C-alpha cells in the first residue's frame, strides 16, 4: 500500500527520465487532447496531471489540443469549460490552444497521398455492410468489392465527398491495410466520413471529417509531440497509429504509451452516461456538485491541490481493472482543508435555547482563532447572549447513559463559552420539542466547573446575530460501487435518493463575509464551500464537501 510520504509508482515518468538521461530525447513534448463533447471528469484530471506534470518535471512542454472531429456533438461551451478546468487545476499549456481542425487541410492532403500510394480507397459499402465484411475476433474479414478502384477514381470521389456531392453514409474513405489482420483495427479502417454539419471552428468548409485514428497521430506529428500518452483502451490502436506515421511523410514520429485509466468506486466516468444525467435533469448540469466532473468537484469544494494530490497518490501503472477507493479522494481533500480551511460554527437543524439567568440585553463577544493551528489566520468575533441555537441532534429527551450532550437536568459546554444546564423542555401541540430553557454557570468560561465533570461540548450560534444559510448536504450519487457493472440493470436504478439533502441553517456572523468558493470547517459538522454560482451578498449557499471522518487514514494505518 502506497504511503503518502512514498512516491506512488509512475512507470511513464521513470521511462521518460531514463530516455532524457540516455540522450534518446532532448526535450519532452506531451499533449492533452480532449474531445469538446462534454465536461472533463476525474479520469481526465489524472491524464491532465500526468501530461502537464511530466512536462513540468522534465523541463518540457504540454499542448492543449481539442480533438474536434465530430461537430455534431461538440459545443463552444465545452471548449470554454475545458480550458477553465485545466487552468484551475494549476496548469498552463505551451503556445496557443490548438485544434485538430487546424490540420484539416494537411490531413486531407495526406489522405490524397495514401490514395496515390495505393493505400486508401473510397468505399460504397453501408455501415452495416462494413461491419459485416470486417469479420470477427476469430474470423478474418473479406475485402470490399470497391477495394481495387483506380487512383484517379478514388481521388475524384474523395474530392466530390469533400464538397458535399454525396449524402451521409453513402461513401467513406478507408485505408487499405490487411482485412485478415488479427488486429481488427488494421482491417481497412475508416479515414473519412461524410458529415453535413457546421463546425464550430471551420464553419461549413468541410463536408467530410477525419476519424480519430487518422487525426490523432498525424496531429501529434505536426506538433512535434514526443510521447503520446493515452489509456490502455488504445493499446490495440497503437499498430494503426504507427502504420499511419510510417506510411505518410510526417515531420516527426511520436511514440504512444498506454496507462491504466482511473476507475473510482461509486462513480461513473462514461461521458455518454454523464450527459444522460444532465439531459434527463437528474442532476443540475455538468457542474452539479454530485458529478465527478472537475467543475462539479470544484463547486462542491474540492481544491485543485487536493485533486492533484489524489492523482499523485494513485500513481500511474499498466495494471487495469482495479477500483480506486473513493475514500482516497476524500482523504486528499480532507487533509488539505484540515490544514487550510478556517473554522466556523453553523447549526444545520436549529433548536432554540433560552438562557433564563441571562439578561435580555446581555451580550459578550469572544475572540476565537480562525484556525487552531494557524496564527496567520485572523481571529473571528463570536457573540454570546440570552438566546441561541444548538443542533437538534445535540439534544435528547430520553438520553442513554453515554449520551454526552444536552438532556433534561444534564450539563454541556458551549464551544468556546460556558457550561449550561437544561432545566425545562418546551413542546408544541404536536409534542415536538421547539425550545429549551437552560441556565448558565458563569464560573466556567475557560475552566471546568467545581466538583463535577462535563464531558460534552456542542456548537452553537447566537439567535440575534446568526446568519441564515442554505446548506446542501451532498453524498455519493450512486448506492453501489459499480453502478454500470450489471449490463442487464439500468444504472439509473442505483441512484441514491439521499444524494442531496437541503437544510435551512444558521451560521455564526463571520460567515456573512464569505464569498463564492470560500471554504470552512463547520465545527463538528464537516467541510463546506460557499457555492460559486448561488452564493451572493446576503444569500449564502454552502455545499458540504466532505465530512470529518477520514476512513482512508484508518485504512492506511491498518495497511
TrEMBL record:
Keywords for this protein: Aminoacyl-tRNA synthetase, ATP-binding, Cytoplasm, Ligase, Nucleotide-binding, Protein biosynthesis
Record's keyword annotation contains Protein biosynthesis: yes
Catalytic activity: tRNA(Gln) + L-glutamine + ATP = L-glutaminyl-tRNA(Gln) + AMP + diphosphate
Domain spans labelled Glutamyl/glutaminyl-tRNA synthetase class Ib catalytic: 27-328
Pfam short name (any one): tRNA-synt_1c
Name by which UniProt lists this protein: Glutamine--tRNA ligase
Name of the gene this protein is made from: glnS
Residues the record lists as binding L-glutamine: 67, 212
Keyword ATP-binding listed: yes
Amino acid at each position: 500500500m502506497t504511503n503518502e510520504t512514498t512516491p506512488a509508482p509512475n512507470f511513464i515518468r521513470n521511462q521518460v527520465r531514463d530516455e532524457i538521461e540516455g540522450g534518446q530525447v532532448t526535450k519532452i513534448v506531451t499533449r492533452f487532447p480532449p474531445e469538446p463533447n462534454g465536461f472533463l471528469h476525474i479520469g481526465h484530471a489524472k491524464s491532465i496531471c500526468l501530461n502537464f506534470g511530466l512536462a513540468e518535471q522534465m523541463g518540457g512542454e504540454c499542448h492543449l489540443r481539442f480533438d474536434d472531429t465530430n461537430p455534431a456533438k461538440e459545443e463552444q461551451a465545452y471548449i470554454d469549460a475545458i480550458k477553465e478546468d485545466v487552468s484551475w487545476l494549476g496548469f498552463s499549456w505551451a503556445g496557443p490552444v490548438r485544434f485538430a481542425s487546424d490540420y484539416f487541410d494537411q490531413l486531407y492532403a495526406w489522405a490524397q497521398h495514401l490514395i496515390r500510394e495505393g493505400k486508401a480507397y473510397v468505399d460504397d459499402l453501408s455501415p452495416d455492410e462494413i461491419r459485416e465484411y470486417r469479420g470477427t475476433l476469430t474470423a478474418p474479414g473479406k475485402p470490399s468489392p470497391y477495394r481495387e478502384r483506380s487512383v484517379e477514381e478514388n481521388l475524384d470521389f474523395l474530392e466530390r465527398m469533400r464538397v458535399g456531392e454525396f449524402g451521409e453514409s453513402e461513401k467513406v474513405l478507408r485505408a487499405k491495410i490487411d482485412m485478415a489482420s488479427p488486429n481488427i483495427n488494421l482491417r481497412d479502417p475508416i479515414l473519412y466520413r461524410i458529415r453535413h454539419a457546421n463546425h464550430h471552428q471551420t464553419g461549413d468548409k468541410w463536408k467530410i471529417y477525419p476519424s480519430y485514428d487518422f487525426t490523432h497521430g498525424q496531429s501529434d506529428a505536426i506538433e512535434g509531440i514526443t510521447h503520446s500518452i493515452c489509456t490502455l483502451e488504445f493499446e490495440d490502436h497503437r499498430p494503426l497509429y504507427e502504420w499511419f506515421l510510417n506510411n505518410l511523410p510526417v515531420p516527426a514520429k511520436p511514440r504512444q504509451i498506454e496507462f491504466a485509466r482511473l476507475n473510482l468506486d461509486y462513480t461513473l466516468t462514461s461521458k455518454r452516461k454523464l450527459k444522460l444525467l444532465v439531459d434527463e435533469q437528474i442532476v443540475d448540469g455538468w457542474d452539479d456538485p454530485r458529478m465527478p466532473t472537475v467543475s462539479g468537484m470544484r463547486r462542491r469544494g474540492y481544491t485543485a491541490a487536493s485533486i492533484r494530490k489524489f492523482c499523485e497518490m494513485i500513481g500511474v501503472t499498466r495494471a487495469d481493472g482495479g477500483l480506486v477507493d473513493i475514500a482516497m479522494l476524500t482523504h486528499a481533500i480532507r487533509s488539505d482543508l484540515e490544514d487550510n480551511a478556517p473554522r466556523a460554527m453553523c447549526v444545520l437543524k436549529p433548536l432554540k435555547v433560552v438562557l433564563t439567568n441571562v439578561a435580555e440585553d446581555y451580550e459578550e463577544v469572544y475572540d476565537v482563532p480562525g484556525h487552531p493551528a494557524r496564527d496567520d489566520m485572523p481571529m473571528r468575533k463570536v457573540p454570546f447572549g440570552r438566546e441561541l441555537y444548538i443542533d437538534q441532534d445535540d439534544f435528547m429527551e430520553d438520553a442513554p447513559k453515554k449520551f454526552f450532550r444536552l438532556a433534561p437536568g444534564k450539563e454541556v459546554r458551549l464551544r468556546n463559552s460556558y457550561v449550561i444546564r437544561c432545566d425545562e423542555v418546551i413542546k408544541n401541540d404536536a409534542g415536538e420539542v421547539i425550545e429549551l430553557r437552560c441556565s448558565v454557570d458563569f464560573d466556567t468560561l475557560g475552566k471546568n466547573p467545581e466538583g463535577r465533570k462535563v464531558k460534552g461540548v456542542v456548537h452553537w450560534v447566537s439567535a440575534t446575530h446568526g446568519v441564515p444559510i442554505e446548506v446542501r448536504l451532498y453524498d455519493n450519487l450512486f448506492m453501489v460501487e459499480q453502478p454500470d457493472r450489471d449490463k442487464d440493470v439500468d444504472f439509473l436504478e442505483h441512484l441514491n435518493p439521499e444524494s442531496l439533502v437541503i437544510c435551512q441553517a444558521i451560521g455564526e456572523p463571520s460567515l456573512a463575509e464569505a464569498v463564492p468558493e470560500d471554504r470552512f470547517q463547520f465545527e463538528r459538522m464537516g467541510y463546506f464551500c460557499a457555492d460559486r454560482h448561488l452564493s451572493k451578498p446576503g444569500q449564502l449557499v454552502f455545499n458540504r464537501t466532505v465530512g470529518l471522518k477520514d476512513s482512508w487514514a484508518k485504512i492506511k494505518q491498518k495497511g
